[in-house]
Design a protein that fits this description.
This protein is an alpha/beta fold and about 270 residues long. It has helices spanning about 45-55, 75-85, 95-100, 165-175, 195-220, 225-230, 240-255; strands spanning about 5, 10-15, 25-30, 35-40, 60-65, 85-90, 105, 115, 120-125, 135-140, 145, 180-185, 220, 260-265, 265-270. The chain has two domains: about 5-190, Metallo-beta-lactamase, Chain A (4-Layer Sandwich), CATH 3.60.15.10; about 205-270, Winged helix-like DNA-binding domain superfamily/Winged helix DNA-binding domain (Arc Repressor Mutant, subunit A, Orthogonal Bundle). The strands form three sheets. A seven-stranded mixed β-sheet has the order 1-2-3-4-5-6-7, with helices on one face. A five-stranded mixed β-sheet has the order 8-9-10-11-12, with no helix packed on it.
């Protein structure tokens, strides 16, 4: 067990589920000492959950999840069962169709405040990667826990129908309204230039979108398989099946904006 004390309030324990999608593994964050909040207990790895319990003991007050994807939330159900502490988060009709059902004690909404004697947290609804995605803003230290909304060193997959590119970009813009100094991502290390990262992520997505438009201008019409090789020519080909999910999310956004139309499996620019 390697626990890292990041600030006077924040500790980080990373689950041993490292792979090409999770990077070094899913970060679980422990806030406080006397009234502890755990954010994202991670996958259903009993040894990781037992480590969280040994670190918090009877001081554990509540469990928060950023979203219900399998590398972030199943461990929350185990931790709740083993300790009896309440679980907070959000589910939506769309997320319930996609993800394993989870027993949440309190549904959180945008703007909710969670207060203890040691710190205060504000809830920010950030749909895009997932319809039920939440970020948590630690007001006392201006730190944002971003789950999969922003990750260290890579971009996230936006997979329709629960993932939505238009909502993702709006949720990124929303973060600029908060006095964030540090981002604590669900995967990877702390990010200390939050606004620059937000802007770079938005720019990256819009450049990808422009490549779609340029490819359709050249071809006249194309399907997803024909688009992915050129639009994601900077991504290893073995990742193209995953890239197709985000490509589809971009195309849906372009159709919503009346830039592209679809005829059977082919996409074409609207003149």
């Amino acid at each position: 067990m390697k626990i890292t004390k990041l600030t006077p309030i924040i500790r980080r324990l990373t689950a041993g589920n490292s792979n090409m999608f999770t990077g070094p593994g899913t970060n679980s964050y422990l806030l406080g000492e006397n009234e502890v909040t755990v954010i994202d207990p991670g996958p259903p790895m009993v040894n990781h959950i037992e480590d969280l319990i040994s670190l918090t003991g009877k001081s554990l007050k509540q469990i928060l999840i950023t979203h219900t994807h399998p590398d972030h939330s199943p461990g929350a159900s185990i931790l709740k069962e083993m300790t009896g502490v309440p679980l907070y988060g959000l589910t939506t009709e769309s997320s319930r169709k996609r993800d394993e059902e989870i027993d949440i004690d309190k549904i959180l909404n945008h703007g909710d405040k969670i207060k203890t004697s040691e710190y205060s947290i504000e809830v920010i609804h950030t749909p895009g990667h997932a319809s039920n995605h939440l970020c948590y803003f630690l007001i006392d230290e201006n730190t944002l826990f971003t789950g999969d909304h922003i990750m260290d060193g890579t971009t996230v997959v936006i997979a329709p129908p629960d993932g939505n590119m238009s909502e993702y970009l709006r949720s990124l813009e929303l973060l600029k309204e908060y006095p964030i100094k540090t981002i604590a991502p669900g995967h990877g290390d702390l990010i200390h230039d939050p606004i620059a990262i937000v802007d770079a992520t938005i720019e990256h997505r819009l450049k990808r979108e422009q490549k779609i438009i340029e490819k359709l201008e050249k071809l006249g019409s194309a399907n997803v398989d024909e688009l992915v090789n050129d639009v994601y020519d900077d991504v290893a080909s073995f990742l193209h099946p995953v890239a197709k999910w985000s490509l589809e999310a971009h195309l849906i956004k372009l159709m919503e904006n009346k830039v592209v139309s679809k005829n059977k499996q082919d996409y074409v620019l609207i003149e």
